Amino acid sequence: MKGRLSGIQKQVLSLHRSLLRAARAKPPETREQIERFVNAEFRKNAAIDKKNYQQIEYLIRRGQKQLEMVRTSDGFSVVEVK
Amino acid sequence: MQAALRSSAITVRNAFLQHLRLTVAATSHRVPILLDSRVSFSSDHGTYLDKSSVTDRILELVKKMEKVDPAKVTPQASFQGDLGLDSLDTVEVVMAIEEEFALEIPDAEADKISSCAEAIEYVAAHPRAK
């Protein structure tokens, strides 16, 4: 991060933050599960060659869909935990 | 002598009544105003946290990160160079700081925080940090 981040790197980090923020709204155990999954997923894919835009963009789109799922499953998880 | 006594008694009585009236007036007027000003105080203006307490809380939190060697954590430590974190770890640190101080740090700001010093600076300059 010493040098400036590229646009696509910023997008990835922004997605990472959004996912962690969405997880905060969940009950503690669910939240922890989501956080562990999200952090591991980003860690795993950090090894992808930074010029492999096609793969990175595909993963960003997938992550955005997962973010929507985390956000909208809100009602469900609250009901389920009860 | 008696007149003097009486007049001092009146003075005392007046002072007492004035005092009474004051308190009654105070309770009837102040309550809603006080509540109102408190709400806007915490949401709009806020207060700045003491820098040394911000420093302590941030260093404490960074030391708790899984990958961080607590012995290396100093107010000047950079996340990547000194603490061996990468940009993903930094996201986790900054998110933990957000939560600790009840802030939401916008992406553009979060991208710029790359050391304990920068994190301390950001939080200490933020009026809504708790």
Q: Your description of this structure?
A:
Chain A is mainly α and 82 residues long. Chain A has one domain. Chain A is 78% helix and 0% strand. Chain A has helices spanning 7-24, 28-45, 53-72, 74-81. In chain A, helix 1 packs antiparallel against helix 2 and helix 1 (7-24) packs parallel to helix 3 (53-72). Chain A is elongated and about 40 Å long. Chain A starts with 6 loop residues before the first helix and ends with a helix. The relative contact order of chain A is 0.15. With 130 residues, chain B is an all-alpha fold. Chain B has one domain (2-124): Non-ribosomal Peptide Synthetase Peptidyl Carrier Protein, Chain A (Orthogonal Bundle), CATH 1.10.1200. Helices cover 65% and strands 0% of the residues of chain B. Chain B has helices at residues 2-45, 51-63, 87-100, 107-110, 116-124. In chain B, helix 2 (51-63) packs across helix 3 (87-100) and helix 2 (51-63) packs across helix 5. Chain B is rod-shaped. The model of chain B is unreliable at 24-44 (pLDDT under 50). Chain A binds chain B through residues 1-2, 5, 9-10, 13-14, 16-17, 20-21, 24, 39, 42-43, 46, and chain B through 79-81, 86-88, 90-92, 94-95, 99, 104, 107, 110-111, 114. Chain A: Residues 10-69 form the Complex 1 LYR protein domain.
What is shown here, in short?
Chain A has 82 residues and is mostly helical.
How would the blueprint of this fold be written?
The complex is a heterodimer of chains A (82) and B (130).
Chain A: H1 7-24, H2 28-45, H3 53-72, H4 74-81
Chain B: H1 2-45, H2 51-63, H3 87-100, H4 107-110, H5 116-124
Pfam families (chain A): Complex1_LYR
Family (chain A): Belongs to the complex I LYR family. SDHAF1 subfamily.
Subcellular location (chain A): Mitochondrion matrix
Q: Termini distance of chain A?
A: 43 Å
- Count of helices of chain B? 5
Shape of chain A: elongated
The CATH first-level class of chain B comes to Mainly Alpha
Strand content of chain B: under 5%
Catalogue the unreliable spans of chain A.
75-82
The major beta sheet of chain A can be summarized as: none
CATH architecture classification name of chain B: Orthogonal Bundle
Give the name of the CATH superfamily of chain B.
ACP-like
Percentage of residues in DSSP E strands of chain A: under 5%
The SS-based structural class of chain B is mainly alpha
| Class computed from helices, strands and strand pairing of chain A | mainly alpha
Mean pLDDT level of chain B = 81
Uncertain residue ranges of chain B: 24-44
What's the total count of β strands of chain B?
Answer: 0
